[in-house]
Amino acid sequence: MVEQAHNQSSTKRPALYLAEYDTPNAIAKAAMKVRDAGYKKWDCHTPYPMHGMDEAMGLKPTKIGFISFFFGMAGVATAVLMMKYMNAWDFNFLDIGWGYPIVVGGKPPGAFPSMVPIMFELGILFCGFATLFGLLGIIKLPRHNHPIFESERFEAATDDKFFISIEAGDPSFNLDRTRALLESTGPTYLELIEEGA
Amino acid sequence: MTDVKNTDYRVGNDGFWARAWVVPLVLAGVGGLMAALTAGPERLSYAYLFALFTIVTVMLGGIFLVLIQFLTAAHWGVSTRRIVEVIMSGAPVVALLALPFIFGVWTGKVPVYQEWQEATGHGAHHDEPADEHGVLGLAGSVAQAQGHAEGHEADHETGHDEGHSHTAQETTLHHEIIEAKTGYLNTPAWTMRAIIYLLIWSVIAWLYFGWSRRQDEDHDPRHTLRMQSLAAPLLIVFAGALTFAAFDWLMSLEPSWFSTIFGVVIFAGSAVAILATTILIGLSLYKRGLVGEAINPVHFHDLAKLLFGFICFWTYVSFSQWMLIWYAGIPEEATWFHKRWEGGWMFVSYLLIFGHFVAPFLLLISRVQKLNLRWLQAMCFWVIFIHAVDIYWFVLPQAGAFRIQLADIGALLFVGGVFFAYVFWQLGRVPLIPVGDPRLQRSLHHHQTH
User: Which of A88, B106, B268, B445 measures 20 to 30 Å from B196, CA to CA?
Assistant: First the structure.
């Protein structure tokens, strides 16, 4: 079952190991083994979201919530400063022009309640952008290519097969020991993927 | 937590929950005495309306949460649904508790809706040719009703009808607005509608609790299908009843005032109240090992997320209602908020802003906070307290300056005590999770923690 697909040549260097499994159970058990072996730069690829995979992989809770919250609050603060500058304060900000107090509807300049909708909108806007781009940053997208796509079998990851990949950039990565670890998890197929020099 | 003895998910004959109903019942007795002995009929009416509507919102939240789960065919909440169903099934108890109040309004013994009830009575005279004295007399009585919070203003308006024709004109106009509403706001129509609302809620609660209980025995998925297909039309009926009950019972305390979003504000409060109550009861059952792992931290986390969402929703609609009125600044509309600002009420208004939004927003926003069950429990107690303050803020400013009286607390203890005595008693009689529900297995294995 276990075979090596590519010839090792001197111009190529190892990029990652790809192990294929037939069942969700098998990949969950394998993931726990890889997690316990202390790997950091590795991932699981399944055709559908699997509950409990985060635990099997030992993933830490995401930081995206903090990013969203921080930028949401920054949006609220931006709204307050902007409205105060445009409607209430009488000074020249960065030489872009004088803000001046405006009375609208008989309310005092820069009345707090009239700012709330803008505070809400900018809070949501900043939060939304921070969530999207923060997420893209965390998952390192967009990128042009990934060596994992060198494998033809990997296409089944969107169909009916389950994959674990361990990248060569991982500090614990070792051609022999990593292969031995993955073999011990009983994959139906194991492949060393290399990328060109 | 997994006790073999308790795999039938029942409270059993021993332990706290077997006799939990005694606690609220005793509180109800104490509260009833407190209220009855310390207040006159007027204050007691306001206090009772506050207490009644606080409990009504909890029960309505229950109906909503059950119906919406069937509407969406949700599996996440099946194991916590029984707690909600039991609270919902208290609708007939609420109806019983409401009867004395409705009877009092009908017979005129409950003086909280006098402003429009009297307008109905004088309607016939008003069509006659202008009777300067009569109109001014009426205007005076309206102004008096309007000005409890500021006694001197009422004197001011009734005292000088000559030199203040402008004021008199305004109050006459004000009176005409109420007069124009008497086709809807009159005692027989109000009474009939109140009975219809209570019937609608009681029938929905009775049907859904009954079917769910029957499913416990026969495990027949057809019950679920029937409840799903009825959920959509019944939600429409429920929403209508809730909105108009809010108009009739709370908004008509100030009959010249109107806000189309008022029902939504009450609905948002109801959702907040039921979620906090469900989490609290669920936590207590969970900690005592009565539900095994059928209800676990993941379910509490889900409920807490919804609670957080509805707290924000309450803020959104409450603020929207207030800001439009503030921005327009029309006296007729501003009166209602003016009453909630003067006479010591400003403090309560600020308490709602910070206690019903800012604090829960910051203290429940993080996943870590929601998954800390002790923290969540403390927050739920706070949220229920602040929800009661919210309803208090709707009702009691109509009775005058801010002064908490024993009767207010007593009435809440009485109505809440009777209601929860029923709820706790019923919890002891039924399985604590809907054991016959076809989606229960999925709910039990629902362990996605995000």
Answer: B268
Taking CA–CA distances from A111, the nearest residue in chain B reads B327
Q: Are the beta carbons of A113 and B365 separated by less than 8 Å?
A: no
pLDDT in tens, A10-24: 678 899 999 999 999
B40 φψ region: left (φ > 0), alpha (ψ -120 to 50), beta (else)? beta
Q: Is residue B187, in this structure, part of any structural domain at all? A: yes
Q: Does the beta carbon of B13 lie under 8 angstroms from any beta carbon of chain A?
A: no
Q: Mind listing the domains of chain A with CATH numbers?
A: 4-59+146-196 (3.30.70), 64-138 (no CATH)
Minimum CA–CA partner of B312 in chain A:
A120
- The answer to whether residues A121 and A80 touch, using CB atoms and an 8 Å cutoff, is no
Domain of B71, in residue numbers: 16-444
pTM, rounded to two decimals: 0.85
- Whether B78 and B434 have beta carbons less than 8 Å apart is answered as yes
- Cβ B87 vs Cβ B425: under 8 Å: no
Count how many domains chain B has.
1
Q: Splitting chain B (450 residues) into consecutive groups of 10 residues, what average pLDDT does each group show?
A: 58 89 96 93 95 97 97 92 97 97 94 87 45 43 44 42 48 78 92 97 97 94 95 97 97 92 97 98 94 91 97 97 92 90 95 97 94 97 98 95 94 97 95 92 67
Of B319, B329, B450, the CB nearest to A116: B319
Separation CA A70–CA A92 (nearest Å): 28
Whether B450 maps to a domain, the answer reads no
Residue A131 contacts B where some CB pair is shorter than 8 Å: no
Q: Do B326 and A113 touch (CB under 8 A)?
A: yes
Token digits of residue B420: 């929860």
pLDDT attached to residue B332: 83
Q: B326: nearest CA in chain A? A: A113
Residues A113-145: pLDDT tens digits?
999 999 999 999 999 999 999 999 998 899 988
Assigned domain for B6 exists: no
Task: Let me know how long chain A is.
Answer: 197
**Least CB-CB distance to B329: which of A52, A106, A117?**
A106
Query: Would you say residue B427 lies in a domain?
Result: yes
Q: Does residue B330 sit at the A interface (CB-CB below 8 Å)?
A: no
